[in-house]
Write a structure and sequence with these properties.
The complex is a heterotrimer of chains A (210), B (212) and C (545). Chain A has 210 residues and is α+β, with helices and mostly antiparallel strands. Chain A is built from seven helices and eight strands; from the N terminus they run E-E-E-E-E-H-E-E-H-H-H-H-E-H-H. In chain A, helix 2 packs antiparallel against helix 3 and helix 5 (148-163) packs antiparallel against helix 6. Chain B has helices spanning 9-12, 50-70, 87-96, 100-129, 136-149, 155-166, 179-197, 201-204, and strands at 15-16, 23-25, 74-78, 82-85, 168-169, 173-177. Classes of the chains: A alpha+beta (210), B alpha+beta (212), C alpha+beta (545).
Chain lengths: 210, 212, 545
């Protein structure tokens, strides 16, 4: 087993070893060598992140259950939900694309939100969460693949393309997606893994103490 | 500070866990796998096989970039016309039809970004392999940019998915995703994986003082 | 100092504001709002959600889950959600979501059918479905009772329920070329459609449901007659050729015509679902009106060739009956053969006409009508076979007054009573034709020509004498008188030329007389031949029936 050095920080971009400094509220520590962000001090991080995660979860359900946009073409009305779009593309013989979209827009955000709640809820309650390490590891990977914001832009581009030929009807889920994009961005912004680890260490120490 | 050579964590024998960020000093025993004392993640000084993996993925994406841009991305059928658009012709169509802003977005996201990523990563890899000592901070910034913009290339895939699902008014208007969409999706995913495989610390290694 | 110390002791400490606590509570407003919005959306969704109905069809052809729409008057009111095979595997159950605003359209008597492109003889419909797929059409009834399970129609209903009009029931022996959707005509105007056709349970007939649109339904009275207007009504009878059809469409598809007889125009309006009989043809429909009829026997001794069962009995051009039987009877003596022809006589037709003409009531009781008939026969009322058409050789029975006929009486003792007859008109015609021919033959044409020549010759001689005389006068009379006489001589000369035996006028007259003789001969041949084979002109030699 390696020996921990809790007050040292290594820049993940340039491998510079640095000493940790206390930060003021909202301050950001960066690497003295390459300027990469090392850690931040976010106020009330766990609480806020959890709140955003719960809100995102709710919005996520709405965004997936309701139609995003509808088109009206000479009396023919057609609307599409996200799962509907994915299954439709699958049925059109494009399973690769449909799987890709399924993973990036449905699976990845769902996993991210769920894991965030699973991780932070026990931490906030001051309990030791189960499977924290795999959760943290997965969160780090899944973060890259959740592309709700890109999808939101995709919806807007699709709207522009559609308005030339069709009457476009904005359905509920388009607003839900907009909200989800904002909430996920807020969640990511307020999430501070360093604080979580400190909390976890604290809990672990408290558990050992008595 | 600038130009001043410093000791890298590797040379000092420190290693930062990539999951929890905890700095520890792993045993220098090569037979055992070092684990993070906090989260039990396997510790690496550098990403293993970074350059080889990055090259392989980059090459694959560069090859796929060709069919992604030459094959049909989207088929649009209406009563009177049947269009087959490649990515570029789709952008041109958007531009001609007056949606300049959107055309620019799609052009950047679908054509510029993947190309930029492939070229940038290739440059980074070559410079690392040649142990270049020039423009190190700039190259780090370039890498950050590559990582940040990679996901936006998925834009066209999402647009095609939405249109293909939505515009299904039999024989009046039909949109189908073409074979280029698969190639394009693969390009985006592969370049993202390549960017992840690349270890930016390698950029700095040539100017690090090795601990004797 | 102590005072100051005391003072400081008394001064309370500032309290740290529990900002952290506050803000941590505030942030939870975000998920709260999100939850609230979602709840509102979900509630709204369920409020907006219309009923979900199940329709069962025989096949699921053209129906796609999530794509097939439900339309009322071409406006979408719902969407098919799922398609499943029924448990007994005989039908397809289609589950559809109806929009909230259209939920009132879904009631017990709402009808559903799949609109596909249909090309039938009289219409091409649903061409639009070729482009954007089939849809489920609905027709809304009058019921308000909600219902969520329906049986779909296999074909679109001919008439939507909101079309004003009335339904009637027709009983027919055969369906002919009728089909559901066949049209109903009133004075060649298309006024309705056949809704359904069903074989009667006993298999002996058919029951048709028809629909007559308003305002034409007011012409359907209790006494209205319906008949098959299917195809071409081509008849060849004593009335000649008849070519009847409603419209070109009915030739191909069949249809039903109806008419209300004029004398029944004051009949009551037929209530919906009144039952009528569907007659095979217009003739049948009109005939059947005569419910009162009398049978008579007419005994003919002449050929009844060309007379057929069903041939009309005609009273001065109006059909008052028909031939029902033609017999061959050997006289008891064995010396003669008689042809008793039974006819059915409709006294009502006479009745109606007499009433409309002289407003006098004909006696209704049979004894009175017997008296009347007796009186008529006494005045020469007879039956006669007449040729309806020289061309076809068809014959009919004519009733008429023959004042010169030999006196006769109705034999009431026989059943049916025997009405006296006179020889047929063709026979009379042939007889008189023969007479003419004989007379023509008797004419001494040759002698007549000879006489004329003699007369002319003597006239010529007389003129020659006159010339001599004039020559004498010429020598003795003054030159003026001579001049005049010379002119007269010239005139007479030309007269002589004219009247000479080989003059053109003479020759023409001779030729004419010869031609007349020849014509008379061929006429005789024709009449003889016609007597034997009256129909031979068209058919050639025909075999006996």
């Amino acid at each position: 087993m390696s020996i921990p050095h809790r007050h040292l920080i290594i820049c993940h971009e340039c491998d510079q070893v640095l000493k940790e400094i206390p930060l003021p509220n909202g301050g950001v520590a960066c690497c003295s060598c390459c300027g990469a962000t090392l850690y931040r001090h976010t106020q009330d991080s766990i609480n806020r992140t959890l709140a955003f995660a719960v809100a995102a979860a709710v919005m996520y359900v709405i965004a997936n259950c309701f139609p995003i946009i509808g088109i009206d073409f000479q009396g023919n009305y057609n609307e599409v939900t996200l799962p509907g779009a994915i299954s439709s593309v699958w049925n059109q013989g494009r399973p690769v694309i449909s799987t890709l979209v399924l993973f990036c827009i449905i699976v990845a955000p769902a996993v991210e939100i769920m894991l965030m709640i699973c991780l932070l809820l026990p931490v906030r309650m001051g309990q030791k969460a189960l499977g924290v390490y795999p959760i943290m590891r997965t969160l780090q990977v899944i973060k890259t693949w959740g592309m709700v914001e890109v999808f939101m832009l995709g919806i807007l581009v699709a709207l522009v393309k559609l308005t030339t030929d069709f009457i476009v009807i904005y359905e509920v889920a388009i607003w839900a997606f907009a909200a989800l994009t904002l909430l996920l961005a807020s969640m990511t912004a307020s999430f501070n893994p360093r604080e979580v680890w400190q909390q976890l260490d604290q809990i672990a120490e408290d558990g050992e103490a008595p | 500070m600038k130009g001043k050579s410093r000791l890298s964590a590797k040379s000092l024998g420190y290693c930062s866990c990539h999951v929890c960020g905890l700095v520890s000093r792993p045993d220098n025993d090569d037979d055992t796998i070092d684990l993070c004392p906090r989260c039990h993640t396997t510790l690496h000084m550098r990403k293993t096989g970074s350059i080889e993996r990055c090259w392989a993925l980059l090459l694959a994406s560069a090859i796929l970039y060709v069919p992604a841009n030459t094959l049909i991305m989207m088929e649009t059928g209406t009563l009177i016309s049947y269009r087959k658009d490649t990515i570029l012709s789709g952008v041109v169509h958007l531009w001609v039809s007056g949606s300049w802003f959107v055309a620019a977005i799609v052009f950047v996201a679908s054509i510029v970004v993947p190309l930029f990523k492939i070229i940038a990563l290739a440059l980074l890899l070559m410079s690392v392999q040649r142990r270049s000592r020039h423009w190190i901070p700039q190259r780090t910034r370039l890498y950050r940019l590559v990582e940040a913009v990679g996901r936006w290339s998925m834009l066209d895939i999402f647009v095609v998915t939405l249109l293909a699902a939505l515009v299904q008014i039999r024989s009046l208007a039909i949109v189908k995703a073409g074979p280029a969409a698969i190639a394009f999706g693969a390009v985006v995913v592969l370049t993202m994986l390549a960017a992840m495989a690349f270890d930016p610390r390698l950029i700095w290694d040539p100017i690090r003082k090795e601990k004797p | 100092m102590t005072d100051r110390h005391k003072e400081t002791e008394e001064i309370p400490e500032a309290v740290i504001e529990k900002r952290r606590f506050r803000s941590s509570q505030l942030i939870w407003l975000v998920p709260m709002i999100a939850l609230l919005i979602s709840l509102l959306l979900v509630v709204k969704h369920f409020i907006d959600k219309g009923p979900e109905i199940t329709i069962s069809f025989k096949t699921g052809e053209g129906i796609e889950a999530g794509k097939t729409k439900i339309k009322y008057k071409d406006v979408q009111i719902g969407l098919v959600k799922s398609i499943a095979i029924s448990e007994d595997r005989s039908r397809v159950n289609v589950t559809a979501a109806i929009f909230k605003h259209a939920s009132k359209l879904i009631a017990e008597d709402t009808r559903f059918w799949v609109v596909r492109a249909r090309i039938t003889g009289n219409s091409v419909s649903g061409l639009g479905t070729l482009m954007d797929g089939s849809y489920i059409g609905i027709d809304v009834g009058k019921s308000t009772k909600p219902c969520f399970s329906f049986e779909g129609l296999e074909r679109p209903p001919a008439v939507a329920m909101d079309v004003p009009g009335r339904e009637f029931i027709l009983h027919a022996a055969t369906i002919g070329s009728l089909d559901v959707g066949s049209q109903i005509f009133f004075r060649h105007l298309q006024v309705g459609e056949v809704l359904s056709s069903e074989l009667d349970k006993d298999g002996k007939g058919l029951t048709l449901k028809i629909f007559v649109r308003a305002p034409y339904d007011q012409y359907v009275k209790t006494s209205t007659l319906f008949w098959h207007a299917s195809g071409v009504d081509f008849t060849l009878d004593a009335n000649g050729f008849k070519f009847n059809t409603e419209s070109l469409l009915t030739i191909l598809l069949g249809g039903i015509s109806f008419v209300t007889p004029d004398d029944a125009s004051d009949a009551a309006l037929a209530p919906p679902n009144t039952e009528f009989t569907l007659f095979p043809s217009q003739e049948d429909a009109m005939k059947r009106r005569d419910t009162v009829f009398e049978h008579y026997t007419l005994v003919f001794r002449e050929s009844v060739r060309g007379l057929a069962v069903g041939a009309p009995v005609d009273l001065r051009g109006v059909t008052v009956g028909e031939v029902t039987r033609i017999n061959l009877e050997l006289d008891p003596g064995g010396r003669d053969i008689a042809m008793p022809v039974e006819i059915r006589f409709y006294p009502e037709r006479l009745h109606a006409r007499s009433r409309s003409k002289d407003k006098t009531q004909l006696p209704s009781s049979s004894t009175d009508s017997r008296k009347l008939l007796n009186a008529m026969v006494a005045k020469g009322f007879r039956a006669q076979i007449r040729s309806g058409s020289l061309l076809t050789g068809q014959q009919y029975i004519a009733l008429d007054f023959f004042p010169k006929a030999a006196p006769a009486r109705i034999d009431w003792s026989k059943k049916p009573p025997v009405l006296p007859t006179v020889a047929g008109s063709l026979e009379q015609f042939q007889a008189s034709l023969m007479q003419i021919v004989q007379k023509l033959e008797k004419l001494p044409l040759e002698e007549l020509a000879g006489d004329a020549r003699k007369t002319l010759q003597s006239l010529d001689a007389a003129l020659k004498n006159a010339e001599k005389l004039l020559n004498n006068i010429d020598s003795s009379i003054v030159p003026e008188a001579r001049k005049v006489l010379g002119e007269t001589a010239k005139t007479l000369e030309s007269a002589k030329q004219t009247l000479s035996a080989d003059a053109p006028l003479q020759t023409d007259l001779r030729n004419t007389l010869r031609e007349l003789g020849r014509a008379a001969q061929s006429l005789r041949t024709l009449s003889e031949y016609l007597e034997r084979n009256p129909e031979a002109l068209i058919h050639g030699k025909q075999e006996d029936k």
